[in-house]
Design a protein that fits this description.
The structure is a homodimer.
Chain A (H helix, E strand, L loop, with lengths): L11 H11 L3 E3 L6 E3 L1 H20 L3 E2 L5 E3 H4 L3 H7 L4 E6 L2 E9 L4 H11 L8 E10 L13 E11 L2 H21 L6 E4 L11 E8 L5 E9 L3 H6 L2 E3 L5 E3 L1 E8 L1 H10 L16 E5 L4 H20 L4 E3 L7 H10 L4 E5 L1 H5 L2 E6 L8 E6 L3 H26 L1 E3 L3 H9 L3 E6 L3 H11 L2 E6 L7 E2 L6 E2 L1 E6 L3
Parallel strand pairs in A: 3-7, 15-16, 15-17, 20-21
Antiparallel strand pairs in A: 1-2, 4-6, 5-6, 7-8, 8-14, 9-10, 9-22, 10-11, 11-14, 12-13, 17-18, 18-19, 21-25, 22-25, 23-24
Helix pairs in contact in A: 2-6
Chain lengths: ~475, ~475
């Protein structure tokens, strides 16, 4: 525990893995590419779930559960879909000791099975819209894996909706992207960029895919949530038809949208530093840790009840609080430990603080003495702590936004793009290329178009790659 | 929807399936034996989850997530365990297009993979106890399935704990059984009986299994939750060892405990009647439905705002409320519909009620006019509704308890046992038989020992089957 982390500047990937393991967020499972999400990591995910679920329900969605196992033939019904997913499938071929007549796929995503059920449930325009979300696990047989970012099994929510019109489906797709944006910015302090995916990068089976893209601490992009307008593709593949008000049979319009445990990786890589995690207060499993400090038994007797009383007062205000009263570790060890765990605020209480009826507050996001406030009167502590948590939340967002904006560079030519991305930044430039040209850029530079951002400059320009007239700028970056 | 349900007395099994489907609790999935839990059923499960999760956290447990896929060899490490589960396994043999070197089992339960991880995490007595729960899905390849009661995939929680001493493990096992008991009785109004399983009926790999057993409306027993003391069986199979305070290596003592979506079936079959579901108010997705009644447009304009205002006031008090303002159904149709759905309390508001500033309250658990209160002043309605929901909750528990107690009969001989269970009841009698004798009773009568209940009569007696001296009575019943 006291061993130093590999600094981010030295080896970002190694830093990431060490933080995940040492902060006890996750561990490797015995099956290649699978992870165990440990209680500290899962509690963060539960807080993410609550923040999202509240928003899903406020926008009229309900949760349900669809089966894990999908007949192989279902995937084959939507051409793009099966092409996209068939290389990644885990397949159950034996059940109850017998070889199955039709192999079953462990769901990589649930459009097909949900499409099948919707075709049974939806008969009339009165049945629409159907607004359902599912929290669950999916399996994709990835070759190169990394804890939280890409694992064979991961946890997510997948929303699946059906609508009477193309306009409603598009509005839903955009609404849910905005829900993700609101969550990312205001709960996780991750300043994501909204945009639309290119044809090449869209979801297998979608008409149009929207995304929120985040810049990690190493300036690589992380696709953090996606919302897909599926048009009538799955409705036609699974025969989701309804009688409209004129008693005519119509295909429904469907959407799907998902955000996964990958977002835990986004939080770690957006905010973490060389001491470990820094968790945004709104989502942190523990928002405040109290470290009572003593040497002699008499000091412990004086300090511990005061720490516990303050903790109780803080809990009453709804804060998530822990008192570290273990007696086999030094205060310095405990400071390091809770810094590694990314607890946003530490309260130190020693014998002299007790005598002065005061405490010391230490911000996780501002290292050393600069982040400490000494002599905060005990009476004021709860209010000051609540206020400081808000300040930390805002400061994390501001810092990440500044970092992001400082590392996105406008480019006018392919040469400039290569220069910018070669130095690790994101390039933004006019784009009117084809999917083939996009593929060539990826091959030559390793970067992809993360999205065509919603926020666009005025006017138009010339495509940085082809010189053709271009109406939109695209964002190029290396990505996880 | 308006078609009558098959009465319970005519065909209980058919009644059950019809209720589940028509109340839109669940539906059949395209894969044999799998189900889709629809939003109404899943919301009930979410309420069950919250009631349990709160209790788990209050007793010091945290949630985590362990992998879905388990190496086949893991199951083979605990002899009884593999014997118990190997006939029911779903096996992944292909991943990413390749045949796997070692087949992976879709978890039927997680003792083995969690045991493996605990052996990595637990080093010292300071690491103990480990108190972890997991909410998730498991797959068991069952031959005869029934929605919620027995499906290939089901949803549950499984707690897994590790302790330094046998006493602590036993205390944990008993504590979690009491948590289930408290939940079942006080949230679900299902008057379960606590007891210990016989050797023959215990969990594959456990030293001792505790259970809560419920009596369904057809008097069959439903095992509704179990808590297992695993002794050192899994600790030895997976090498979960720790250094004690004397620096000596010891095996840990582990437990596991689970409650599943099967409990949704318990609620349906404990409380439902020939009109459909009756849901206990504490868990009901919708606690109160308001049905505004109108014929002419002017009446609708008078009635609807009043209904909505009352609904808003009820929601402010924290109740889960729905206003049925659809205009293509008659009030009578709506009454039947919400009765089928088991909403505990209905509020009727017609033009005359509005004129009188009053409402009609109708209890789901008391059919017809007897369950109605007319002329409840609007001002008093929220308080009266809250009070009536408490009354309904209590009445459901009382009715189920009386039904249960009226159908458990003391028996002194095998003849009496056969008579009682032949008539569909539960038999209670002194028991000192062996596992072989127990198996013979099952073969001859179809009944099993549900448990040796904690509540025992004074004294001792003669075993009803063997005549041997017996210290305990056992409960015999046919079971789901």
């Amino acid at each position: 525990m006291n061993q130093k982390l590999t600094p981010r500047s030295e080896n970002y990937s190694e830093w990431y893995t060490q933080v995940v393991l040492r902060a006890e967020m996750a561990d490797y499972a015995p099956v290649r590419g699978c992870m165990v999400v440990r209680p500290y990591g899962w509690t963060l995910w539960e807080n993410i779930q609550q923040a999202l679920d509240k928003r899903f329900k406020a926008t009229g969605h309900q949760n349900a559960a669809f089966p894990l196992l999908i007949p192989m033939s279902f995937l084959e019904k939507e051409k793009q879909h099966v092409e996209g997913f068939s290389p990644e499938l885990a397949v159950v071929t034996v059940g109850g000791g017998q070889t199955l007549e039709e192999p079953l796929v462990v769901r990589p995503t649930s459009e097909t099975i949900i499409g099948y059920m919707y075709s049974k449930w939806i008969k009339s325009y009165r049945d629409l819209p159907v607004l359902i979300n599912q929290w669950g696990n999916v399996v994709r047989w990835e070759m190169r894996t990394k804890l939280f970012l890409r694992t064979l099994e991961f946890y997510w929510q997948e929303g699946h909706t059906a609508h009477a019109t193309a306009e409603e489906a598009e509005a839903e797709t955009r609404q849910m992207l905005d829900v993700y944006y609101d969550f990312a910015v205001n709960e996780a302090a991750v300043p994501v960029i909204r945009g639309v995916k290119t044809e090449r990068e869209k979801f297998a089976g979608a008409e149009r895919s929207y995304t929120i893209e985040a810049m990690m601490g190493d300036k690589k992009a992380l696709q953090s949530g996606t919302s897909h307008n599926l048009g009538q593709n799955f409705a036609k593949a699974f025969d989701i038809q309804y009688l409209d008000e004129n008693n005519e049979l119509q295909y429904a319009w469907t959407t799907s949208w998902g955000l996964s445990t990958r977002f835990v990786g986004a939080i770690i890589m957006t905010h973490g530093d060389d001491q470990g995690l820094i968790l945004p207060p709104r989502l942190a499993p523990i928002q405040v840790v109290l470290v009572p400090i003593w040497k002699k038994a008499a000091e412990k007797e004086a300090v511990l009840p005061v720490a516990r009383e303050l903790a109780a007062r803080l809990k009453e205000t709804g804060l998530r609080v822990e008192v570290d009263d273990t007696d086999n570790r030094t205060p310095g060890w405990k400071f390091n430990y809770w810094e590694m765990k990314g607890v946003p605020l530490r309260v130190e209480i020693g014998p002299r603080d007790v005598a002065k009826k005061a405490v010391v507050l230490a911000r996780r996001d501002v290292p050393g003495r600069e982040g400490k406030i000494f002599g905060v009167p005990m009476e004021e502590a709860p209010a000051r702590i609540t206020q400081m948590l808000d300040e930390i939340q805002a400061a994390l967002l501001q810092r990440a936004t500044e970092f992001r904006d400082a590392n996105i560079h406008d480019v006018a030519s392919y040469e400039e793009l290569k220069e910018v991305v070669g130095a690790g930044g994101w390039a933004r430039g006019w784009w009117a290329g084809t999917s083939e040209e996009e593929a060539r850029i990826k091959e030559e530079t390793g970067v992809t178009i993360r999205c065509i951002p919603f926020e666009q400059p005025e006017g138009s320009g010339r495509c940085l790659y082809t010189g053709r007239p271009a109406e939109k700028v695209a964002l190029f970056a290396k990505a996880y």
